[in-house]
Write a structure and sequence with these properties.
- This protein has a single domain (2-390), classed as Growth Hormone, Chain: A.
- Helix content is 82%, strand content 0%.
- α6 packs antiparallel against α7 (109-130), α9 (143-171) packs antiparallel against α14 (252-279) and α15 (281-302) packs antiparallel against α19.
- The chain contains 19 helices and no strands.
- Mean pLDDT is 83; it is low at 1-15.
- With 400 residues, the protein is mainly α.
- Residues 21-396 form the Major facilitator superfamily (MFS) profile domain.
- Residues 1-21 are annotated as: Disordered.
- It comes from Streptomyces capillispiralis.
- It is a multi-pass membrane protein.
Length: 400
Amino acid sequence: MAQTEDIAGKAPGEGQSARRGGWTAVAGATFTVVTSEMLPVGLLTPIGDALHVSEGTAGLTLTITGLVGAVSAPLLTPLLGRLDRRVLLCSMMALLVLGNLLAAWAPNFGVMVVARVLVGIGMGVVWAVAAGLAVRLVSGTAIGPATSLIFSGIAVASVLGVPAGTYIGELADWRTAFAVIAALAVVVLIALAALLPPLPAEQDIRLGGVLKLIGNPQVATGLAMVAFLVTGHFAAYTYVRPALEEISGVSPTLIGTLLLVYGVAGVLGNFAAGAGAGRAPRGTLLVIALVLATTVGLLPLVGGSVLTAGVLLAVWGISYGGVSVSTQTWLLAAAPQAREAASSLFVGVFNGAIALGALIGGLTADGPGIEAVMWLGGGLALAALLVAALGRAPESGRLG
């Protein structure tokens, strides 16, 4: 904590600027790694065509990254536990640059798989480490806002990264989209190196200690909610482009616009849910799960026009936009003395759920069809609703 005190001890203007710059750079890192993970969602059709695979197989680009992130977060965070966090974040961002450039070049699906493995490693570690840094960069009443900003990088990437990639893909091609996110990762790498102070490891994290947290009933409930919500969302959302094309008759030129509507709504949902989770984490997640289940389930039934599909996507975005900030707030409040350990578990389950959702969504899309994918996603969100209602919750989500 000495570094936090050093920053706080500067002249008022200088100290405030340094703190803001540091946590903004970390928010940029979380935005970039999660955008890299989500990027294929809006590009499945052109990726599949270029690499000569089906849409279901192309969806494995998300599954692979999620699985690697799920393993790398709880395993590599303890193994790299003694490294300075600034060095660790910069190293993982460099790996992300390499992975995205390789994806942009990929001549076949095998090379794409290797690229997505590299992205998964970088994403898993950056996300796990970044989530607990706000309390080291600021103190007192500033902890809450700084933490929300860092979380917002994850949430905003989840909802805006996909439409951004889709737009780039429409304006140029899908390879350009990966090249652009690689360039963004370079910018963020430079910002982290320039704006973060040295951040030596705060705790000696051991794998056994990470796994022991699962025995905490509040942590276990939070992880179960993450599993159901995120699996359900990505079972459906990974295939939102073919769903809009087949169910709603949306033309390819309008896909990016509708996903942008979803993204803007998701940003609003992120900040609304962040405020709600700080006061009442259980109530916030009950509302999120109910709205998400209803919206996804209704798409095949009433989403037969561009207008209704757009309305449903906006409500979907509002609900899912609050998932990451609400669930991570829940987990950090449930284990305040083991922030990085709880975050690594969160990232592991979150990304394992992304991988599982993309996988079962792909199997369902290639089997029963796109409508069944939407109903599957809605059903899993209902399961999360039951977990939120019946499980153990922290009294509040306040972090500072």
